[in-house]
Amino acid sequence: MTRWLAAIGATSALVLTTAAPAGAAPNPRSDQWWFSAWEIQQKVWPVAKGDGVTVAVIDDGVNGKLPDFQGVIVPGTNTDTGSGDGQIGPTSSVEDSHGTGMASLIASQGTASGFVGVAPGAKIMPIITQHGGWDKAIHFAVDHGAKVINVSQGLSGECRPENQQAVAYALQRDVVVVAAAGNTGDVGNRPEEPANCSGVLAVGAVDNKKNAWTKTQRQPYVAVAAPGLLVNVLRADGQVMDRLAGTSQATALTSAVVALMRSKDPQMPAREVVQRIINTTKDAGPPGRDNMTGNGVIIPAAALSANVPKNAPNPVFAAYDRWLAQNPQAGAKPSKTKVPKSEATKKADQADRNLYILLGIGAVVVVIGGGVLLLLVRRGKKKPPPMGPGGGQSGPPPGWGGQAAPPPQGGQPVPPQGGPSGWGGPQGPPPGGQGGPQGGRPYLPPQGPGGSRPPN
């Protein structure tokens, strides 16, 4: 399973002491070149920082105890074991730090390392899935409040039905699914799931000059591209790794942009979020749409603020709509999940029932007492009228009322420092569409310096 980023030359781990002062606005390191390329501090953070949005990181876990993730992590799970909270301990392994690295690109606070995420206001939900169980992971993420799902993993082959169904489950519940296009474009270039599942925003990788990374997958399902070459990440022991490349990082950065958009406009549907991202890209690679960079490189500021026509192309959701037309049973209206009552709620309900019973008994006593009194008064008069079997005066007790019950990468290596100052604005609606799922066989991908993992 392709799930880690490629190393360029020797991988180095840097220990930094450039943490921002407590309470200060986060400032990125100088080698986080995508901040200047995307003009994050100038044009993006004044609009949104990701507050109120949870991003599910489906990967190999996150070390949420690092100072850089203080206040960022929400409970996740391990779908391989069906238990846990999705967190891992510190490790110097490059391979085992993959999930931590992806989370750092999205929402690291820079507290100890100086490494800052693009959406530092967002929350991270870590979900451990190391054996391709994306369907379970996606369902968990959706059911527990994630609005963005990041899958920086891939397995060669067609999109399996259970994974496609899970993606549909997410889209029907207004959740954006983002996945890595793959890192073997210069070798086998096999299509990979879940990137090739219909409705997934599949991401390729570019360098800081908008050149496609040589290893990024060349597939018709690639929708957009984002920074992926020489994009450093935070390791699970708190150190920063540099000289890395991969569509994994491009995917995490794209998920961060989605979080920014969902933070700015929580009511914007997932379909429109993806439409705006696609139609505000900057062309990259060969002129027009291509299979390495898709419709172009994401421009966050434009995605947040540009005027995009409601009828602008949306090849990602067009592919999903085609799949849905062929699988109408998957389009049933999502049923409302009945949330079990908490113990406190159960006790409160029982107390209410007890109160109603007491009130009812009291009312009966009042009615009977009133009837008896009336009978005695009438008997004190001359020629009292005969009483029927019902006797006395009746009627509803006054003042009950009550309240109703609650409603039940082509590109040359570039220096890791500095970077371009802005990539420019949108280029207009892109042509073309998105291809459907592709074939292929599972294979053992090239392994990075962190060690090997068996394919699924």
TrEMBL record:
Residues 50-296 form the Peptidase S8/S53 domain. Keywords: Hydrolase, Membrane, Protease, Serine protease, Signal, Transmembrane, Transmembrane helix. Residues 1-24 form the signal peptide. The active site is at D59 (charge relay system), H98 (charge relay system), S248 (charge relay system). Residues 395-418, 443-456 have a biased composition (Pro residues). Residues 78-98, 382-456 are annotated as: Disordered. GO terms for biological process: proteolysis. It comes from the Bacteria. CDD domains: Peptidases_S8_S53. The chain crosses the membrane at residues 355-377. One of its GO terms (molecular function) is serine-type endopeptidase activity. It holds the Pfam family Peptidase_S8. Belongs to the peptidase S8 family. PANTHER family: CEREVISIN-RELATED, PEPTIDASE S8. This is S8 family serine peptidase. It comes from Actinomadura decatromicini.
